[in-house]
Amino acid sequence: MTTARYRRIVLKLSGEALSGEAGFGLEPSIIQSVSRQVKEVAELGVEIAVVVGGGNIWRGKVGSEMGMDRANADYMGMLATVMNSLALQDSLENQGIPTRVQTSIEMRQVAEPYIRRKAIRHLEKKRVVIFAAGTGNPYFSTDTTAALRAAEIEADVILMAKNNVDGVYNDDPKLNENATKYDQLSYMDVLNEGLGVMDSTASSLCMDNDIDLLVFSIMEEGNIKKAVMGENIGTIVRGK
Ligand code: UDP
Prior knowledge:
UMP binds at residues 54, 74, 135-142. It is found in: Cytoplasm. Keywords: Allosteric enzyme, ATP-binding, Cytoplasm, Kinase, Nucleotide-binding, Pyrimidine biosynthesis, Transferase. Residues 20-25 are annotated as: Involved in allosteric activation by GTP. By secondary structure, this protein is α/β, with parallel strands linked by helices. The chain has a single domain, classed as Carbamate kinase (3-Layer(aba) Sandwich). The chain contains eight helices and nine strands. Helix 1 links the parallel strand 1 (8-13) and strand 2. Helix 1 (28-42) packs across helix 3 and helix 5 (142-152) runs parallel beside helix 7. The longest helix has 25 residues, at 70-94. The protein is globular. The two termini are 27 Å apart. The relative contact order is 0.17. The structure holds uridine-5'-diphosphate. The site of uridine-5'-diphosphate (UDP) has 23 residues, from helix 2, helix 3 and helix 5. Uridine-5'-diphosphate binds next to helix 2, helix 3 and helix 5.
């Protein structure tokens, strides 16, 4: 029996969240901390899907600003998410947590292809499923991937783990010391006020499909469990 608030979650980890202070590459101590936190939650019986970003390695926008074809640059970004996903899988399995990576772009030697029903089956068997390679389409983001997969697997919530902020503020708390944190918001607020929670495609998808989103800091160990237990951390964006 679980006393957790949520039965099935999508944990969204940006690439940056895996890179620590440096902001690029992978920081082993951070990946281990994330794995320990995921383990704690898995032990509650919560079903965990993870969507991993790639911004610590490559962002399509940067490539296109350098003159690259946008779609090509975005495919590079999707490949970056696969590298991060494999690093996380490795660390989770070192903690004894059975894990499957599913990619939206087929690479069968590396991981399973994304198959919705199979992903759900893994979750039911209490395997952590990592969704890699974004949606498989250029011009999208891994935030949109989190929204899409959450809808597909009927997750109760998206837990959006941040490494540089502990919730949603009315202004950048690093630049404005008077910035205040919201406890609760609607997607309409996020869209109307242009709050930098996630891109507008992802916000719209969450809004249209009544998906709750909790934005919180992953830098404090134990926070994923607190989020899952429904403790009052971060900012909740309500789907309805
Ligand atoms: N990307 C994409 N389609 C997707 C998901 C991601 O083209 O469905 C590319 C895009 O270029 C993006 C990069 O992958 O910049 C890395 O993803 P994202 O920026 O969402 O990573 P995060 O900011 O979460 O680290």
